[in-house]
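Design request, tokens follow.
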């Protein structure tokens, strides 16, 4: 199975990124986690991105806050699908990171999830892996069924109030 690369601009992003790690663990998808900064370690970020396909990755998740150029810088150096997580910081409620991540030029897409939307980044990565992996497809479908059963149960409880 292809691996998911999870990279973040700083260890300060880790509390958000952990939600993505937990989803991938739960679905049994192999992943690697790294800290690469588009600004502080641009050479390492570029080298990782350029070699990612040959190193067995199928998709890359990139999380960054503030002037969040990491996902775009990764996308510039690979044709693997790149999913961006804009991370909320003290200023602007994460709008700065959202716009920096989502506003990519034509031809270099970054599939951007919600601010701090790390769980959905992992689910989207899983859906990409599931295009060619039957086991992951089944795991995703089981998750959706469990989520549906949970909401139906809550509906029943609420309707008795
Ligand atoms: C970004 O700047 C990182 O992704 C992080 O969200 C933000 C702040 O980084 P630190 O100053 O906490 O290392 O590059």
């Amino acid at each position: 199975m292809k691996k998911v690369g999870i990279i973040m601009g700083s260890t300060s992003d880790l509390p958000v990124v952990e939600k993505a790690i937990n989803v991938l663990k739960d679905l049994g998808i192999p992943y690697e986690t790294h800290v690469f900064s588009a600004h502080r370690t641009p050479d390492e970020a570029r080298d990782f991105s350029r070699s990612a396909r040959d190193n067995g990755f199928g998709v890359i998740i990139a999380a960054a806050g503030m002037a969040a150029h990491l996902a775009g810088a990764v996308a510039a150096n690979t044709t693997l699908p790149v999913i961006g997580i804009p991370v909320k910081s003290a200023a602007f409620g994460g709008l700065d990171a959202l716009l920096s991540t989502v506003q990519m030029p034509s031809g270099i897409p970054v599939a951007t999830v919600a601010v701090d939307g790390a769980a959905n980044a992992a689910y989207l990565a899983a859906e990409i892996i599931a295009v060619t992996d039957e086991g992951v497809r089944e795991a995703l479908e089981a998750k959706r069924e469990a989520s549906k059963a949970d909401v139906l149960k809550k509906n029943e409880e609420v309707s008795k109030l």
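Comment from the thread starter after seeing the answer: thanks! The domain at 3-159 is CATH 3.40.50.1970 (Rossmann fold).
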